[in-house]
Design brief:
Blueprint (H helix, E strand, L loop, with lengths): L1 E7 L2 E10 L2 E10 L6 E12 L2 H5 L3 H10 L2 E12 L8 E15 L2 E15 L4 E11 L2 E10 L6 E12 L2 H6 L2 H10 L2 E12 L6 E16 L2 E15 L2 E11 L2 E11 L5 E13 L3 H5 L3 H10 L5 E11 L8 E16 L3 E15 L4 E14 L2 E13 L2 E4 L2 H4 L17 E5 L2 E10 L12 E12 H8 L6 E14 L6 E14 L3 H7 L10 E11 L2 E11 L3 E9 L4 E7 L1
Antiparallel strand pairs: 1-2, 2-3, 3-4, 4-5, 5-6, 6-7, 7-8, 8-9, 9-10, 10-11, 11-12, 12-13, 13-14, 14-15, 15-16, 16-17, 17-18, 18-19, 19-20, 20-21, 21-22, 21-23, 22-24, 23-24, 24-25, 25-26, 26-27, 27-28, 28-29, 29-30, 30-31
């Protein structure tokens, strides 16, 4: 130190130069009324003050803890003013104004290192406040700005730090900087890409830090939900984080040609249990391929494998996953979804082709068993090349058992007193050839717990009411015009797997009133008896069984005004006939 002390009457003026932390510094000031009651004012200026360990040790203990936690290093140009009011036992009032240059910071509770840190520092001992303003820094390609304050009005003091990052990499360094619960979110999502975010940190020395992300945006990113490992790219997402909860404000991404949009939330409790919930999930043009099926829980995957949906499917609704921090615990799921089908295929014992319409699904997966209920609302579907429209009704899945329509029909109560009339809304109904079809079915899917069950088994019960024979002939019997009648009937079919030769069943078909002029086989017989234009059957009844890929007709009754006939025989699924008739 060198300089001058100059007494002017009762005052002393001070002008000194020296070294502070190895760099030049000046001190100027005035002391009035020197002695125990002196009034003093000092100003210290340092062009390059090193914020090193010696600087930290010079600070008060509470500030030492804060600076140590911030790991603030670098140089600053600083101006410090010290004022001592006149009187005995007065405390010094200290104010600091400093400008950081080429500094660094890595807060121990958010260890995301900031390089090339610059900004302004202000301190007021009267306010017991440190302010860090206009902070600017870099982390790789990321550009960061921020503010901070440390207030010591109440012990142990409070540090508040706000960091705004632009163009930050969603990498492991950022992941390690996050609090444990948010790291769990990171592990659940496996994000990549560019992040813009605002991070707010509250911390008191000796206490855990509270980290929130009021604003965050992921661009040009990728995500893979651990509970449903179906990777997405071209991800754009905005979210926030506070109190161990992530609010997903928007999400948009793609998987090949499949588009995904969602809103939702993710949260954790102190025990480590977590929940991921997507409230507004929309998926366009989903292809239920092998990668998608592998992402499903085991039992639900088995159901999808047997239903074997094909073609693009769109869906919207809610999906929720839950889990724990114990690896042995399974991830559970719940959903409330509506799927939209645009010409694809499903299998429920019978192959459903050219499916157009909607299916709703509300279900749960408890880690061991799938339970699901839903509604069928199809505009059109084809079964065995026959078209059905306005297909509506309920279905349910319980483990490996699928019920379509009424459970009471396919699993009747053993007590006959409980077998009442089944309301129409509990059955699947459809329109075809001018009539109404009802369908109830039970499918038992292969169960890994049952060693002998290798193929699905099924039971289908269907009825037809007031179908129009003329519409059937026009659509499915090319060249047959002189056929009219009202058709009523029923059919029960059961089988195993998807092979026709494992299908058996029974049914009846009645046509009444009828005008059957051109039954091809019958016309040949009728020609032996009289002119065909005078031959018409007004009533027909067919009773049949199904076995060995053919219809086995127990009886075929054709009743007319001038001629009645009875027959029996078989009709194979490939169209070959073997029928015997005799007149009555």
């Amino acid at each position: 130190i060198s300089g001058t002390l100059k007494q002017d009457g009762g005052d002393i003026d001070v002008n000194l130069t020296g070294q502070a932390g190895g760099h030049p510094a000046t001190l100027s000031g005035r002391i009035r009324n020197p002695g125990p009651k002196a009034e003093g004012f000092y100003k210290i200026h340092a062009n390059r003050l090193s914020l090193d360990d010696r600087f930290v040790r010079a600070c008060q203990p509470e500030l030492q803890k804060t600076l140590a936690a911030l790991n603030l290093k670098g140089d600053a140009t600083a101006d410090l003013t010290v004022y001592r009011p006149p009187g005995a036992d007065q405390k010094f009032a200290v104010n600091v104004t400093a400008r950081l240059t080429e500094a660094s910071l890595q807060f121990v509770h958010f260890p995301y290192r900031l390089e090339k840190l610059a900004g302004d520092i202000k301190f007021s001992s009267a306010e017991k406040t440190w302010l860090f303003e206009n902070l600017r820094a870099e982390h790789g390609k990321a550009r960061l700005t921020g503010t901070a304050s440390f207030v010591k009005r109440q012990a142990p003091g409070l540090l508040q730090l706000t960091i705004t990052a632009r163009n930050a990499d969603a990498d492991q360094q950022l992941e390690r900087a996050l609090p444990p619960s948010l790291q769990e979110t990171w592990n659940q999502l496996s994000p990549g890409g560019r992040l813009d975010l605002v991070s707010k940190i509250r911390w008191g020395p000796g206490q855990p830090a509270i980290v929130t992300l009021p604003e965050a945006k992921l661009t040009n990113g990728e995500l893979t939900l651990r509970a449903f490992p179906y990777p997405l790219d071209e991800v754009e997402a905005t979210f926030s984080y506070a109190n161990s909860q992530v609010i997903l404000k928007s999400l948009k991404g793609k998987h090949d040609h499949t588009g995904v949009r969602a809103k939702g939330s993710m949260w954790w409790n102190p025990d480590g249990d977590w929940t991921v919930r997507l409230d507004e999930l929309t998926v366009d043009d989903l292809l239920p391929d092998r990668l998608f099926r592998r992402a499903l829980p085991d039992d639900l995957r088995d159901v999808i494998e047997e239903i074997d949906p094909a073609g693009p499917i769109s869906l919207d609704g809610m999906v929720e996953f839950r889990g724990t921090n114990r690896p042995q615990d399974p991830v559970t799921a719940a959903w409330d979804l509506q799927t939209i089908h645009t010409g694809g295929k499903l299998t429920t014992g019978l192959d459903l082709e050219k499916v157009y319409g909607r299916l709703s699904a509300q279900g749960t997966w408890n880690g061991d068993r799938v339970r699901m209920t839903g509604k069928i609302d199809l505009d059109s579907v084809e079964v065995w090349d026959y078209q059905f429209t306005h297909v509506q009704g309920p279905y349910s899945i319980d483990g490996s058992q699928v019920i379509v329509g009424s459970r009471q029909v396919v699993l009747p109560d053993a007590n006959s007193r409980n077998r009442g009339r089944v309301p129409p809304e509990e059955r699947v109904t459809a329109r075809a050839i001018g009539g109404v079809i009802t369908l109830d079915a039970r499918v038992a899917l292969p169960d890994a717990k049952v060693a002998l069950q290798k193929e699905p088994t099924y039971l289908v019960k269907a009825t037809m009411s007031k179908g129009r024979l003329e519409q059937y002939a026009a659509r499915y019997m090319t060249g047959q015009k002189n056929l009219q009648g009202v058709m009523d009937g029923w059919i029960d079919v059961s089988g195993r797997g998807t092979s026709n030769d494992k299908m058996t069943g029974r049914g009846q078909l009645r046509i009444n009133p009828a005008a059957l002029y051109e039954l091809p086989v019958i016309v040949q017989v009728a020609n032996l008896i009289g002119p065909p234009d005078k031959t018409a059957f007004r009533y027909a009844l067919l009773d049949f069984n199904i076995a060995n890929s053919q219809f086995l007709f127990n009886s075929i009754d054709l009743v007319g005004d001038t001629l009645s006939m009875r027959g029996r025989g078989s009709a194979k699924f490939d169209g070959r006939l073997n029928l015997d008739f005799y007149s009555m």
